[in-house]
Amino acid sequence: DAQGVNTISPTWFSVTDNNGTISSLASADYVNQAHAMGMEVWGLIDNFNSGTDNLTFLSSTAARANIIQQLMTQAASVELDGINLDFELISSKCGVHYIQFVRELSVKCRENNLVLSVDNYVPKPYNTQYDLKEQAAVADYVFIMAYDEHTDGSNEAGSVASISYLENGVTDALKLVPKEKLVAAIPFFTRLWKETP
Fold it and tell me: What are the distances in angstroms from CA 87 to CA 126, 179, 194?
């Protein structure tokens, strides 16, 4: 019954090995129901499997192609509208390979009439390897995850996303990404804090 929601991005795909095999939870029934409610569905792919190594599979042309081919097959089989890329903890060494993957994925998405969006941390000097400017050149949307200013692993209690954290994230991202392509993801959650001592 949510009002104003025009896109939903279920976490359906995950890289499961260094050869670029992916797992899938994609559901045509889910997509059909979302379409009937006027929503687009952008299937999300992540790299959260502890049995994989980002550098190993992203530096392999064959593994990248394998991931992309499987995504295109899955997207066609359930009639997805787009792909959302949520690869996190990309190292500086891995950055060039990651950006090449984004480029290659963008080409296939365009050929298959799929929207491509890419998730990112808010811009900081230590995550420039995500190269938001190049992402903006090839992807349809560049997301900044304007949350986890303080995480459940933080040493002190603090806001999940203070206003200044969001504002600074957007301001810094706009130096690299056109406003028409930038999406600021805001949290609908908080955390329960316990500081010791």
Answer: 16, 22, 30
In the predicted model, what is the mean pLDDT of residues 62-87? 98
Tell me the CA distances in angstroms from 197 to 48, 131, 155, 156, 193, one per residue in order.
32, 40, 11, 10, 12
Residue 68's closest CA among 102, 94, 31, 26?
102
User: pLDDT class for 57, splitting at 50, 70, 90?
Assistant: very high
Q: pLDDT class for 2, splitting at 50, 70, 90?
A: confident
183/177 Cα distance (integer angstroms) = 10
Of 3, 9, 47, the C-alpha closest to 183 is: 9
Burial tier of 174 (Cβ tally within 10 Å: 0-12, 13-18, 19+): middle
